[in-house]
Hints:
Layout (H helix, E strand, L loop, with lengths): L1 H11 L3 E7 L2 H13 L5 E6 L14 E8 L3 H8 L2
Antiparallel strand pairs: 1-3, 2-3
Amino acid sequence: MDFIVNFLEYCFSKKKTLIYTTFNQQDYYKVIDRLKANQVMYRVASISNVSTSPSGAYSDLGDEYKIYVKLDDKGKALRAIHQ
């Protein structure tokens, strides 16, 4: 179900490009903080797959975070992430 929702959101939103994917919640928050500090608008698609998580429902090993930005902001976002 998450796939369908994420796909529809992507299709009906302004042009977006994937700039970062992580399975680690700490990396996710680090990237989001850097984007916010540099005033880059972003969108996150989060996919939670508890059935493949070996550590149970409260582990972040089954979660995937995909961060999208406008195509025009791609360079600014990449500089913010890798500073």
